[in-house]
Amino acid sequence: MTRVLVVEDTPEIAKLIQKGLMLDGYQVEIAMDGRSALAAVRDRTPDVMVLDLMLPDIDGLEICRRVRATEETTGSPPVPIIMLTALDAVRDRVNGLNAGADDYLNKPFAHSELSARIRALLRRSSAASSAASTGKVEPPLAHEDLNLDPSSRIVTRGDRRIVLTAREFDLLYMFMRHPNQVLTHDTLMERVWGDDFFGESNVLAVTIASVRRSLEEGGEPRLIQTVRGVGYVLRSTP
User: For residue 209, which of 18, 54, 146, 203 sits 20 to 30 Å off, Cα-Cα?
Assistant: First the structure.
């Protein structure tokens, strides 16, 4: 059974989320603070995490950062993370995505929307294992010193392992499948976010920036180039 870790310090909200997700067929664990959340992830990694931004001890941003840092150290697959926030400023949502969240949802929200976002993230994170079980394993992709393995969802640049969120991986995968081809904003939004997107229009730019930081962390030259007024392209720096 798919396990969802709900990190929410308001008991009423936590219970409502738990009840709704259990009715959807998920196994739900609740953590009321940051330390409990990190312990739960350490003891048994969930299939997806619903993470409140504002917590009494360790906030959601720091939890995201620590989870992603641990995944990078251990080489484990990234846990899909949906961040919940009562803050509606764009910068707060941007901070959540930059910290490693795959998606965000503003409070108050409809359970149907939360459920749809969880399903979307789970579909993406399970794509590799589904392909492997059917024998349809896509060969690794390479561009310059950047390598991406769709089956294992491992990304490397040179000798350096790169850990991406589920959404960031899907975005880079699109570029790797279409190197030197300009992909428009609309094309990327449709192919990577599709009908599962409910958020702000700048989410593509934020995610592109996050992927760039990961790819260039070791001082490597930029590969994802901006084509002003059109979109983006994966190619070597002119």
Answer: 54
